[in-house]
Amino acid sequence: MAIVARGFTGRGRSDPALPPGQYLTQDFPVLSAGPTPRIDTSRWQFTLATETGERQSWTWEQFLALPSEDVTVDLHCVTKWSKLGSHWTGVPLEEFLGELDTSAEYASVSSYGGYTTNLPVEDLLGGQAWIAHRYDGEDLTPEHGGPARLLVPHLYLWKSAKWIRGIQLLIEDEPGFWETAGYHNYGDPWREQRYWGD
Amino acid sequence: MTHTDGNLLAGPLRAILGVDLTTAQGTCDGCGARGPIASALVYGPEPGLVARCPSCENVLLRIVQTADRAWLDLRGLTSIEVALA
């Protein structure tokens, strides 16, 4: 006689910190779409450009002189692993965008190596996003996006562009590298927005 | 992260297009280099397969595949020459 366990949901998700469909990992897997750029901080530069063409750039020294924060955040990769309680040091995006005169609603983030990703400007503000340069108390390694990467942990990790080089503010949204190839334009892990139409 | 060669593309390309394209000759839209698709430098498979030109590292093609859908981007290839006989 077959035994049927009544009430079994089949999801097996016990950790409320995990979004739907994710599993917990203690590792920090490295996924990449190309060769890892090795950017010396002496030639690193971050450039913010508005929709009107106004540009402002920061050298590495100028970047490090900005007020930074230590944050502990959960990371959720679209390939289904999640890493909880990761420790970062970074400069909140308000430090770059706060005084800016812009009516742009969208941001296109670009990286050394050619990667791009897009997200709404409001997702960069309100204590939700940083340009991070230290991970777990150490300088950020190139494999994990060093010398500096975007950190927007409330979205799937492909939005947290490694090797960040600039942000272009836009009136019209401009889908990035993965967003033009099937991945969701916004990428909220709690709504499991992995692919187009999710 | 290291790359592998273009033979990793064989299965996904066959699933999408129904033909083996790895022996086809591709021309890079970035530098004009021409060679078999199998000679591409391939990164992935997650979050997607990215094939780059072995000469200039330009992205030749991208494949994102789920259980029931696939996306194929061939923008980095000016042309693909396929032998018919």
- Kindly give the count of domains of chain B: 1
**What order do the SSEs of chain A take from the amino end to the carboxyl end, as H and E?**
EEEHEEHEEEEEE
CATH superfamily descriptor of chain A: Oxidoreductase, molybdopterin-binding domain
Sheet with most strands of chain A: 6 strands, mixed
Q: What is the helix tally of chain A? A: 2
Mean model confidence by pLDDT of chain A: 93
User: Distance N terminus to C terminus of chain B?
Assistant: 38 Å
Strand content of chain B: 35-45%
Q: Extract low-pLDDT stretches of chain B.
A: none
Features:
heterodimer; A: 198 residues; mainly beta; Sulfite Oxidase, Chain A, domain 2; six-stranded mixed beta sheet; 2 helices; disordered N terminus; B: 85 residues; three-stranded antiparallel beta sheet
Molecular structure report:
- The complex is a heterodimer of chains A (198) and B (85).
- With 198 residues, chain A is mainly beta.
- Chain A is built from 2 helices and 11 strands; from the N terminus they run βββαββαββββββ.
- In chain A, the strands form 2 sheets. In chain A, strands 1, 4, 5, 8, 9 and 10 form a 6-stranded mixed β-sheet that branches.
- The termini of chain A are far apart.
- Mean pLDDT of chain A is 93; it is low at 1-13.
- Chain B is built from 1 helix and 8 strands.
- The longest helix of chain B has 8 residues, at 10-17.
- Chain B has 85 residues and is mainly β.
- Chain B is globular.
- Chain A binds chain B through residues 30-36, 77-79, 114, 143, 158, 178, 180-183, 194-195, and chain B through 1, 3, 43-44, 46-48, 50, 52, 57, 59, 62, 64, 66, 69-71, 73.
